[in-house]
Amino acid sequence: MNMKKGLILSLILMLAFTLAACGSGSSDNASSNNGDANSETKQMEVPKEIVGIDPGAGIMQATQKAIEEYGLETKLIEGSSAAMTAALDKAISKKEPIIVTGWTPHWKFAKYDLKYLEDPKNVYGGDEQIHTIARQGLKEDQPDAYKLLDQFEWEPADMESIMVAIQAGTDPKEAAKNWVDENSAKVDKWVEGANPADGVKLKLGYVAWDSEIASTHVVAHVLESKLNYKVELLQVEAGPMWTGVANGDVDAIVAAWLPTTHKDYYEKYKDQIDDLGVNLNGTKIGLVVPSYMEISSIEDLK
Fold it and tell me: Helices 143-151 and 184-191 meet at what angle, rounded to 10?
């Protein structure tokens, strides 16, 4: 009888131990599953910051306006183009959410799977163009340089190919030279009717955007290699760039984004500059996110 009682007691204890162990495992699994769910939820949270570029850029002004127009509780972070792309690369490598100020053409669209957020209030405007702007008097002082600048026109794919090369480590001067060597027919049209100078110095201004680094180095190389000018490149922020052309300290820029990005500068200096017109069509600005983020509109940032 005692043996039976002992056996029954042992079985009861074993059963209790087994149930306890299973319960503990279920709890752990539930905790683990909840952790995964929380992690996924955290990953898809909308950031409370927009990573921007230099404070003088028109896209920064448009973004601040977008924050106000859409009633966003979002902070715009000032920085640089390089800092913005570094933050984007870091976030994508960890598949974390991020919002950046973006523009096309840019090499990041070739490297990453990105998307523009829809802008139903049209704060950023539609497609833009890049214009060539010269100082007043350049046409009379240096008609051959002016002719090249006036005839300079290319496609987004041209610009992007140079941007990708630079991003991959090629020096901007070398990347520009390589592109010019490979696109002689297009370059010949730019210099058609222009005569070589005798080592005359010219100053070209540009902002430190990957797109404008590409275009300005290309034009500088053509001026030097085809027309024998000596070109000085001045990398500045948007405000000083426009001011330099307006007061004659800079001969020209091929980096005027209109009608939205540089609207304020154009309106301020339009009577003190010479607008040579569009050198590239099909540009765009706006807010950009990785495609894995499940949002599609700026309104989703609320």
Answer: 130
